[in-house]
């Protein structure tokens, strides 16, 4: 008579402990640059380049954060970036969910080919469309405005459309049929049934689109020319040219400003962490 072999509890505990140790070690590796940035933001300029580097400075220079907010119009840049990021989130979520809803719930001729064509646009490098888009927006008179940074979000993103479609396919179609029998329109089904059930996938899109808009440097560098319309990333770049007395870039102040710019990313991620992970898992499993 065969008896099932049971793994000894000691072996299970040892394997679990080694797994956690490996994960913690990898986390520390990835967190090292962030910890160095935070530590440097509390150093003096000389302490940033001290050898060996002191992770905990003898004196905490909290005034670096005050200087980071006064050397550049930090409040104005924060407002500009917030407006752009919020508009991008609204446009991306609305357009991508609407297109993904059509691809997942409607059956029409050429649907799969059209979806494949949509996904294929992800293989088109941004460098290919950069100049034509700039010429197009310049002829519209949108250069040095927020419009080139916001309007494209209202036309959907192939990656987000793919992610949302995969999630929508996991929602039983019986919900749609029951709502149709009750006289609901297709848009009402999309708005009151599909979107509430797709909160994890939408949270994923919100996190990704927010981080993309908040940390975007290249597009504002191309389209924004006015000092008062700059974003936080452009402000960080301008801090590299801030030379005070020492004749070199004030890296400790630049690190303090970088920490301030990083904080909203962390807040948004941790607020949506549970839905974010679920949306990634479910969206990537359904074929």
Quick structural summary:
With 287 residues, this protein is mainly α. The protein has 15 helices and no strands.
Describe it.
The protein has 287 residues and is mostly helical. The chain folds into two domains: 9-62, no CATH class; 64-285, Orthogonal Bundle (MetI-like fold). The protein has 15 helices and no strands. Helix 11 crosses helix 15. The protein is flat. The relative contact order is 0.14. Mean pLDDT is 85; it is low at 283-287.
- Percent of residues in helices: over 70%
Annotation, overall tally of beta strands: 0
Low-confidence stretches: 283-287
CATH topology of the largest domain: MetI-like fold
Mean pLDDT: 85
Distance between the termini: 43 Å
Oligomer: single chain
Please report the first level of CATH classification, the CATH class of the largest domain: Mainly Alpha
CATH homology superfamily of the largest domain: MetI-like
Shape: flat
**Helix-and-strand structural type:** mainly alpha
Radius of gyration from CA coordinates? 25 Å
Order of helices and strands: HHHHHHHHHHHHHHH
How many domains comprise the coordinates? 2
- Treating each run of at least 4 consecutive H or I residues as one helix, how many helices? 15
């Amino acid at each position: 008579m065969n008896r099932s072999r049971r793994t000894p509890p000691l072996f299970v505990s040892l394997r679990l402990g080694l797994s956690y140790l490996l994960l913690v070690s990898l986390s520390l590796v990835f967190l090292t640059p962030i910890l160095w940035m935070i530590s440097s933001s509390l150093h003096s300029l000389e302490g940033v380049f001290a050898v060996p580097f002191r992770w905990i400075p003898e004196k905490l220079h909290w005034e670096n954060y005050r200087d980071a907010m006064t050397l550049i119009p930090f409040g104005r840049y924060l407002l500009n970036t917030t407006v752009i990021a919020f508009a991008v989130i609204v446009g991306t979520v609305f357009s991508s969910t609407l297109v993904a809803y059509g691809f997942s719930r409607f059956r029409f001729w050429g649907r799969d080919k059209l979806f494949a064509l949509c996904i294929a646009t992800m293989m088109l490098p941004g460098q290919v469309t950069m100049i034509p888009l700039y010429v197009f927006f310049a002829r519209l008179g949108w250069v040095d405005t927020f419009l080139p940074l916001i309007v494209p979000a209202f036309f959907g993103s192939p990656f987000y459309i793919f992610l949302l479609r995969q999630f929508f396919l996991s929602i039983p179609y019986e919900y749609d049929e029951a709502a149709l029998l009750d006289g609901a329109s297709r848009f009402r089904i999309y708005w009151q049934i599909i979107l509430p059930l797709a909160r994890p996938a939408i949270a994923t899109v919100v996190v990704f689109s927010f981080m993309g808009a908040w940390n975007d440097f290249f597009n504002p560098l191309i389209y924004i020319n006015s000092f008062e319309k700059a974003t936080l990333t452009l402000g960080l770049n301008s801090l590299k040219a801030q030379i005070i007395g020492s004749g070199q870039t004030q890296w400790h102040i630049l690190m303090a400003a970088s920490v301030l710019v990083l904080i909203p990313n962390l807040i948004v991620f941790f607020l949506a962490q549970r839905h974010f992970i679920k949306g990634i898992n479910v969206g990537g499993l359904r074929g």
